[in-house]
Amino acid sequence: TMISDNAKIGTGLLALGMTLLFLGMLFMFDSAMLALGDILFLVGLTLTIGPSRTFRFFSRRDRLRGIISFFGGILLVMVRWPVLGMICQLYGLVYLFGQFFPIAAQSMQDTPIIGDILKMPMVEDFFASFGGGNQRRAPV
Fold first, then answer.
1. In this structure, are residues 70 and 97 in contact, taking their beta carbons and an 8 Å threshold?
2. What count of Cα atoms within 13 Å lies in the side-chain half-sphere of residue 32?
3. Residue range 111-138: mean pLDDT, rounded
């Protein structure tokens, strides 16, 4: 299937946003870099999966704790409390995308080096603990 231009641009913005978030944490939680990374991440997500799916994803009542934590963390970063903001965002991301971690780990088990690590019982148990156990459904 063809990938739309919006999805391609969105994927690039997602990658740039994640890079800025990583660099912002690396550079002693630089507020400006983290805020720019957050904005690019959200715009990239919206362009990649579409506005309606993004709205549906962030408006589900069963994910309210993660949504509030994630956007509250973004707000804390914007008001220059970057460490607390990133902790809130990390909690929100794990809460929102926790169901996806076991799916990603399962699909990467066939890769050469990473697969051997992911097949270890301790690592399998760790990823199985995310997202409610055996519910294998993508979060979006």
1. no
2. 0
3. 76
Average pLDDT of the segment spanning 50-62 = 94
Q: Distance between CA atoms of 120 and 105, rounded to whole angstroms? A: 11
The sign one gets for the Cα dihedral 132, 83, 80, 32 is negative
pLDDT digits (tens, 9 = 90+) for 72-90: 999 999 999 999 999 999 9
Q: 16 near 44, Cβ under 8 Å?
A: yes
Give the global pTM.
0.79
Q: How far is CA 54 from CA 36, 59, 104, in A?
A: 19, 9, 20
CB 41 within 8 A of CB 21: yes
